[in-house]
Design brief:
The chain is mainly alpha-helical. 63% of the residues lie in helices and 12% in strands.
Length: 129
């Protein structure tokens, strides 16, 4: 009986240790993603915020524009295929990395620059009012 109980405790503590390790790794990954998003220039943040509020993880864009090149180099955006139906089209289909997409709401809360861009995005202009 004592062997069975000790085996049960061993299994529980291994499971609990693995759970804590996985949770710590997920938290560290989230912090790294938010830190990389916070360090982006204003133009790149504006591009990501615009796509997020259009509820579109995939969009058409020019991969040779400086903002998109930066986002692709950091692994935030990736190229998913040819846009426009021809292989020589300038615009291509781009997508925001799913890991980044699910952390964007936390990024909005933690980054003051992103909050300012969101507030500026929501203000009515003279043409719209």
């Amino acid at each position: 009986m004592t062997g069975l109980v000790s085996w049960g405790f061993l299994c529980f503590f291994r499971w609990f240790g693995n759970w804590r390790t996985n949770r710590a790794n997920a938290k560290r990954r989230t912090e790294l993603i938010i830190a990389s998003l916070t360090g982006l220039p204003v133009e790149a943040k504006a591009e990501l915020i615009n796509q997020y509020f259009q509820l579109s993880q995939t969009f058409r864009g020019n991969p040779s524009s400086p903002t998109i090149r930066l986002l692709i180099a950091q692994g935030i955006v990736y190229d998913t295929g040819v846009g426009g139906g021809t292989y020589d089209a300038v615009n291509r289909y781009l997508a925001i990395n799913p890991d980044v997409w699910e952390k964007m709401t936390m990024w909005f809360v933690m980054d003051g620059g992103a909050k300012a861009l969101i507030m500026a995005r929501g203000k009515p202009t003279e043409e719209t009012s």
